[in-house]
Design brief:
- Helix content is 37%, strand content 11%.
- Among the domains are: 85-489, 3-Layer(aba) Sandwich (Aspartate Aminotransferase, domain 2), CATH 3.40.640.10; 519-761, Aspartate Aminotransferase, domain 2, CATH 3.40.640.
- The protein is globular.
- By secondary structure, it is an alpha/beta fold.
- β9 (304-308) and β10 form a beta hairpin.
- The chain is built from 32 helices and 24 strands.
- The strands form six sheets. It has a seven-stranded mixed β-sheet with strand order 2-8-7-6-5-3-4, with helices on both faces. A seven-stranded mixed β-sheet has the order 15-21-20-19-18-16-17, sandwiched between helices.
- The structure holds pyridoxal-5'-phosphate.
- Pyridoxal-5'-phosphate binds next to α21.
Amino acid sequence: MPAMTASTLRDLEHPSAFVDRHIGPNDAEIAHMLGVVGHDSLDAMTDAIVPGGIASRAPLALPGAMTEVDALAKIRGVAKKNTVLRSVIGQGYYGTHTPNVILRNILENPAWYTAYTPYQAEISQGRMEALINFQTMVTDLTGMDIANASLLDEATAAAEAMTLAKRSAKSKSNVFFVADDVHPQTLDVLRTRADGLGIELLIGPAGDAKDADTYGVLLQYPNTFGRIDDHAAVAEAVHARGGVVAVATDLLALTLIQAPGRWGADIVVGNSQRFGVPFGFGGPHAGFMACRDAYKRSMPGRLIGVSVDAAGNQAYRLTLQTREQHIRREKATSNICTAQVLLAVMASMYAVYHGPDGLTRIARRTHRFASILAAALGKAGVTVGDAFFDTLHITGVDADALHAKARDAGFNLRAIDASSVGISLDETTTRDEVLALAKLFGTDVDIEALDAATADALPTALARDTQFMTHPVFNTHHSEHELLRYMRTLADRDLAMDRTMIPLGSCTMKLNATAEMIPVTWPEFANIHPLAPADQTAGYTELIDGLETMLVEITGYDAVSFQPNSGAQGEFAGLLAIRAYQQAQGQGHRDICLIPESAHGTNPASAQMVGMTVVVTRCDKDGNVDIDDIRAKAEKYSDRLAALMITYPSTHGVFEEDVVAICDIVHQHGGQVYTDGANMNALVGVAKPGKWGSDVSHLNLHKTFCIPHGGGGPGVGPCAVKSHLAPYLPRALGGDGAVGMVSAATFGSASILPISWMYIAMMGADGLRRATQVALLNANYVAKRLAPHYPTLYTGRNDLVAHECILDLRPIKDATGISAEDVAKRLIDFGFHAPTLSFPVSGTLMVEPTESESLHELDRFIDAMIQIRGEIQAIEDGRLDREDNPLKHAPHTAMQVTASEWTHAYPRELAAFPLATLRHTKYWPPVARVDNVHGDKNVFCSCIPVGSAEDAPEAFSEPDVV
Ligand SMILES: *Cc1c(COP(=O)(O)O)cnc(C)c1O
């Protein structure tokens, strides 16, 4: 420890204190690691890695680093510029009470928000149980066979329903009918999506769907104005023509009205926001999709299923399409990768907390208030509509005058047109509110009298007649202690970043600092409805504009759209911009998208969504994209070339020398360059894609800019473009831009943008550059130290990697039969989350340590990897059996290791405590290795039935495999 020599106030005021908290290694450790890597300074190492042609040497023009205290004070000031009125706007977003026990122990708890997508099933059993609760809740309420573990929002879920219907319908029609009473944002997103896929939309009154020649229809129930119609006859007519019926719905209403599955729906979508997730100015919330069993193999998004582990116990895993973009590429069912896991977990816990009776009570109470208000207004001569759940469609009024009056009284009503408004009541509605709302119309309410005198406004023919959520999980944890302990039990089964580094290549699992997270749940950010009037959202405008300015400076682009709510949505938005730009230039025939074979699977999946034809280009033996192949294909398709999608630094973890030349080639042939910005953590402060010739990128704020992964979402995938593409960014809801919406809300998942804002503000220009440099250093340190044990597959200039390294385990497999997966599972016995397995190269592990991991944590990981290499050596030497060894049987559960009988050819101690340090802190996986084949053959995606063997998932066996 150096002695404390600072004495003046100036010395003691350390403005960049946060930087030292965010970056793992301290100066002395950095010096040591630089020695291992073979460079004198971070700058020298950076020069050796980053090609001179792209390096940007000028410091970022960003303000200096702020302390946590100052940054929080500043963003508090920004938040205060938002005005929180009580929004009864509805239109898909409703007031809700987030149970405090869920707020603190899920949303604000790193055990949940720092987890990754559950690819490693054995360390993800807790969140997968929460997600299977979500699936069961959605399945039950909608009356469908199966539901997925969340989609991005209701509008994109409807778009996915449109394409799922296309894949599934018997009808060969190319027309999709959309009822004209779906939410406006749903219609806008459907238009955007249909256009790219060449689907023709037919929009009209729901009843017209009966006679339309279409492959499918989308109805909304209750509709956007709150009306509940009986669609059974429409559904029957559509089915008779071989068409598919998709329905957008409201989960709370479904506790009282007939499940769509009972009257003919084939696909049901919606948003679970009102199950305890705040407005957040539009997001994030968990969209959902449920469908008939027959469609499960082409359903988009992640699906949690029940399988068995090596010990024969039930265990959860991602089933079916898990990573299908990486396998099916442009033939994938959708480009959805990141979804909304954290929000789905919140909604599922809300359902666990309230149970079916509690939810029904909330729904009934909401409906009673709506009925009473309707009766009061009816008496005053106001027309409010009938057959509703929570929403009054008020017509024949002076809307402007009413909105003004409402705002004075503290309310936002829904703006429909000059003579009508909407009022949606919800869980948070009180008696006083109903009185105040009635007053706006000049009438008083005697609540008790009206309550007694007023019948329900639900159509009796559509009263719900089926039970839901009968599983014990929804009927047990209703006291706060019970729920608290249930959530803790689940969290304890998982490995998240609050316990260990998660060195997943291409995922950038860096620190999600607490100070960054704090503003997210402030009411000024959380309680703003996405359609709140602009004069109430000045704080959000300042936040979003400020973040755009920061990202423009960091990337070298000119404009940013925050609408995309995942990286893949950002890709879609970027490609739409390219297409619209080319159309405006009279080049609309351009339709070829070149994509290197090393690209992330979402790239080809997104290209297909805008109607481009994917042409794959090769990589050379060093992992670089093959510039000759790109040139040849750009020439071959010169008159059709629309774009090249390239990831930089490459998914192989190297800074390719030729990127500037590649951009030139594409431009010469009339194409645009799309740079996948998921690897931006290797570039911030070091190089700017917008300056080296790229035209557009998406960024993953949930990678480089510290938004936590939440176990598989939320995410923000802003689309950053050069000025010529700026007019073609997605428009605002109701806006007049050339390109339609890609997400339901104008600013996507706005309420988590403070996280990235805080990160950039607290790091400052120098801190951001240093973070990138240490990310490069950490990756190279791991690669160098592991080199004698596991060769790194690809290196770039001067034998260095970028911010991640691919360890090649294929020779080990050939020599010993031990696979990369065996090593990944053995790491669990050491308490680690595995690196990225078999992407982008099969049989490898890709390690991305990020700048936030300390030398101590890196060494702990390296020690584990070396120990595992020793075990592999023992297999090679015959000291461990080729089949019965700790790798093949990893991970080991406490039950296995402590069982009276131990039949393995290696000692128990080696199984459980391969390093002495594990005796202090040991993570016990709750299940042994999970059987993937069994899970895909026996698809079962609801809560595990309690009781007899006949109820077990096997009963749902079906013979075929994918
Ligand atoms: C993570 C990633 C994506 C997709 O981002 P999502 O937010 O999961 O949709 C795209 N490309 C690359 C290279 C990535 O690593």
